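Usage

Read records sequentially. Each one opens with the input sequence:
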Amino acid sequence: MTPVDQLTARFRDRGLRVTPQRQAIFRLLHGNASHPTVESLYESARTEMPTISRKTVYQTVHDLESMGEVSLLDLGTGSVRVDPNVDDPHHHLICVRCGKIRDVMVDVGSITLPSRSRRGFTVADVEVQFRGTCDDCAAQASTPIA
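and closes with the structure output:
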């Protein structure tokens, strides 16, 4: 994701207000590979700025998405996730127990659809989701309860 100072400049160039609350959200997303929910961003921002509103967090995330700085993902985990990695084509590993999400680089360029299956449809993008159990959850499942 773009560094905080560059995001600040891009927001101003678009005529968007840059507030301390928005800069806090920029900082929380920069280098964050955990695919946080908007709600978890709000909770984290509140520790720094108790008066921040959910509306500010949601609006900032949507503004970032419209600028191409983040992707909003609905991966079936119950909440929209924010993915600040928009530079590297990637897919996702999703833990079905804890909801943890991780980027995975997989070449899907060789996947093709039979022409009869896509009749009248142009494929613009492919998303692959791998669902399973993360190492932490697998370790917990194999630990006997005392």
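Summary fields computed downstream for this record:
- The mean pLDDT is 91.
- The CA atoms of residues 52 and 59 lie 12 Å apart.
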